[in-house]
Q: What sequence folds into this?
């Protein structure tokens, strides 16, 4: 699966050839994420009024907290809370609006569940406030590029951070995505952002990487990245993949977001078998079953 011959690009570019993390788990303030012999599930708790799938369904914090509790009971290993839609062409919301949406839900959910909570934001002020309310992980779709203060915050707080690849900005990214070799370029970008984070004081053990499925990518680019996950796993950091209900699935099946569950489960299973350590998903109960079976194939069942 992973080509370790001298021609392998991970060696050619000086990247560690070994896959996975040294320890197989990632400690957070609220328990460790264990991916030594299993894949973790990151549940998506979207608080935006306009998201492509579940937008506007959780305008009441009480409803959002109840949904988060249900996700934890369904087997989520981490709950990802986001207050700004990053869909193609979406307009940025104000920082105050983002804070008003996410803080009450983080505060409330923190008292109800034991699993780690991640905050999906590229703004350091939102991330700082979220960490104070009990969030554990910063999920930054800009990989520390959009807010110059984000890296210092993550370093000082010593929390895990997700570095995600995106070509362009959420507003422009789907205009005309172009790559010569998408897997190579995404891998090089992530390697550069890992280096930057470490130089700025972030512990290597706190860095999760993510190819950013759908963020400045055509259907072909998304498929090449999912096929090429072993090369990204060879960066040596935990690998997160978010394919749930995204438009590349709609392009393959000809379906709207509400009819993309089965395609999302196929993509999650494929990601697990290609080396993902965390899959990000809307449908926790169904994804949990798909991932348990894919994990049994990947790791065995220990009989
Ligand atoms: C509209 C389009 C709304 C796409 C929301 C989305 C990822 C993420 C998102 C991902 C990480 C979604 C996306 N996707 N964070 N945030 N990785 N780390 O489908 O793939 O939720 S937003």
A:
């Amino acid at each position: 699966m992973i080509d370790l011959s001298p021609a392998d690009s991970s060696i050619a570019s000086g990247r560690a050839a070994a896959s996975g993390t040294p320890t197989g788990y990632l400690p957070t303030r609220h328990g460790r994420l264990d991916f030594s012999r299993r894949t973790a599930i990151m549940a998506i708790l979207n608080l935006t009024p306009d998201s492509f799938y579940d937008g506007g369904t959780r305008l009441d914090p009480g409803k959002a907290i109840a949904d988060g509790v249900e996700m934890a009971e369904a087997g989520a290993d981490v709950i990802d809370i986001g207050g700004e839609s990053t869909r193609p062409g979406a307009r940025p919301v104000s920082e105050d609006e983002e804070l008003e949406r996410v803080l009450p839900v983080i505060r409330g959910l923190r008292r109800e569940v034991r699993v780690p909570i991640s905050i999906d934001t590229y703004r350091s002020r939102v991330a700082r406030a979220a960490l104070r309310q009990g969030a554990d992980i910063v999920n930054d779709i800009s990989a520390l590029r959009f807010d110059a203060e984000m890296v210092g915050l993550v370093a000082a707080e010593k929390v895990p951070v997700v570095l995600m690849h995106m070509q362009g900005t959420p507003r422009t990214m789907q205009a005309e995505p172009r790559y010569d070799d998408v897997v190579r370029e995404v891998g090089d970008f992530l390697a550069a952002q890992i280096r930057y984070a470490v130089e700025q004081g972030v512990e290597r053990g706190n860095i999760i990487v993510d190819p950013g499925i759908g963020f400045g990518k055509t259907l072909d680019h998304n498929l090449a990245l999912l096929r090429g996950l072993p090369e990204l796993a060879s960066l040596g950091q935990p690998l997160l993949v978010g394919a749930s209900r995204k438009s590349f699935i709609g392009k393959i099946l000809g379906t709207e977001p509400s009819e993309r569950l089965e395609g999302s489960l196929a993509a999650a299973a494929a990601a697990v078998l290609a080396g993902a350590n965390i899959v990000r998903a809307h449908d926790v109960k169904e994804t949990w079953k798909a991932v348990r079976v894919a994990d049994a194939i990947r790791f065995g069942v220990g009989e």
